[in-house]
Write a structure and sequence with these properties.
The protein is an alpha/beta fold. Helices cover 30% and strands 24% of the residues.
Length: 445
């Protein structure tokens, strides 16, 4: 582990830094015999669905086998953006989905970000929300073309310069590194404290009449002739007029159709010790949220109080100990920002994200079951939005059907939900990133 344990601060914890301020807490509500809507999954998507239903007079029951908000919803990096949060919509998707549908996706993504900001204000959510903008670093010259097209697409959708390209000579104004060939800034982006957000979202859903029950495991469900459901849990059976699944990276064997369409991947994060705002600003001058264009990307940001840096990525393509992964991430961080050499880590943790085979988020109805899944690593704005979309579907539809609800939800032959191929895919992606880096060093693209 980086030669020694010197990179770990005294009292190092293998739990999320976010939980220091807002740890998930158990709810002990008794299960009713029946509910208008049963939502499986107490993360952002499930809670957003419950909140929107409650605001329209429908009281939902939210169940989760862990504590409410325990999963990726309180473990993620807390980065926010519009179209970037809804499937990382890119210009090259027009070949796969058609120009009109992609245009609608971009417009929906940008509107979702503004709706998100409105939600925070309306519900008075305590979550350290800030409109900081997002910087995406180009790991190679050829990536700059993609960022340029993406900026043009975002600006066309909004009718304003919401995104702009950063040339290589100006990268130092955004981040203290020489690794990036340039980049792009999205102004319609920001950050928040994810654990505070999911806690506040749960409180808002409860105020609107939702019942939250943690420690309840879905075992099976059966659709009845009248279209309703009998939901069987380890705590008993519940009759439900509607059923909604929002389990994402923790989707289990009780829902095999959905499990076959999701690729769960562990993502890892670290938090540095307190550095002070001056040193954080030396590393990240604009205090934005950050990512890059590599296949095995990094995502990072200052903490909400600007005193430390939080850094994440795919440190391993198999489940591994968070401390081992933390050492790998520390090496990545120092390689990217050499000024942070010698900085120690106070927290290292992991959480499951879920990808779809088409790398797009999915919301819809399958055999009467509503769902919002596959945030592909960018779920705070996206899953808040898709929870609202799912609620509108349950309520009887809206004036405009989500562009993402018109996508098919693909799988692959023989795939059952065990991503055995991830080490192979991960190695191929790492080699691709290294090759791109070698080309940059040798004057290529």
């Amino acid at each position: 582990m980086n030669g020694s344990d010197a990179i770990f601060a005294p009292g190092f914890r293998d739990s999320p830094y976010w939980w220091e301020a807002a740890p998930p807490t158990a709810t002990t509500a008794p299960l009713p015999d029946a509910a208008e809507v049963v939502i499986v999954g107490g993360g952002i998507a499930g809670l957003s669905t419950a909140l929107e239903l409650g605001r329209n007079g429908v009281k939902a029951l939210v169940i989760d086998r862990e504590t409410i908000g325990w999963g990726a919803s309180s473990r993620n990096g807390g980065a926010l953006s519009g179209a970037g949060s809804l499937g990382k919509v890119r210009a090259d998707l027009k070949e796969a989905f058609g120009e009109q549908l992609v245009t609608e996706m971009v417009e929906e993504g940008e509107a979702a970000y503004e709706e998100f900001a409105t939600l925070i204000a309306r519900e008075n959510l305590d979550c350290d929300f800030v409109r900081s903008g997002r910087f995406v670093g180009a790991h190679a010259a050829k990536a700059m073309e993609g960022l340029k097209r993406r900026a043009e697409m975002l600006n066309a959708a909004t009718g304003a310069e919401e995104a702009f390209v950063v040339p290589r000579g100006a990268v130092a104004e955004e981040i203290a590194t020489t690794k990036y060939h340039g980049g792009m800034v999205m102004l319609r982006a920001g950050g928040l404290h994810p654990a505070k957000y999911v806690r506040s979202l749960a409180e808002a859903a409860t105020r609107q009449g939702a019942t939250l029950a943690s420690g309840v495991t879905l075992e099976s469900y059966a659709r009845q002739p009248d279209g309703s459901f009998v939901v069987t849990t380890d705590k008993g059976r519940i009759g439900a007029r509607h059923l909604m699944l929002a389990t994402n990276g923790y989707t289990g064997a009780a829902t095999p159709w959905f499990r076959r369409r999701l690729i769960p991947v562990a993502s890892y994060m670290i938090a540095t010790e307190e550095l002070g705002e001056d040193r954080v600003r030396r590393a990240l001058p604009k205090l934005r949220v950050y990512g890059d264009t590599k296949k095995i990307l990094y995502y990072f940001r200052p903490s909400p109080d600007h005193r430390r840096i939080l850094f994440g990525g795919r440190a391993s393509f198999v489940q591994t100990d968070p401390k081992l992964a933390a050492a790998t991430l520390h090496r990545f961080l120092v390689d990217l920002i050499p000024d942070l050499a010698g900085v120690r880590i106070t927290h290292g943790w992991k959480g499951n994200v879920a990808f779809a085979f088409d790398m797009m988020p999915h919301v819809g109805i399958q055999d009467g079951v509503h769902y919002a899944m596959a945030c592909n690593g960018s779920g705070v704005v996206g899953m808040t939005h898709f929870g609202r979309v799912a609620a509108q579907q349950i309520l009887g539809g809206s004036n405009r059907v989500s562009a993402f609800a018109r996508l098919s939800f693909p799988t692959r032959p023989l795939y059952t939900g065990n991503p055995w191929f991830m080490p192979v895919v991960g190695t191929a992606y790492q080699l691709r990133d290294r090759l791109d880096g070698w080309r940059v060093k040798n004057g290529g693209v």
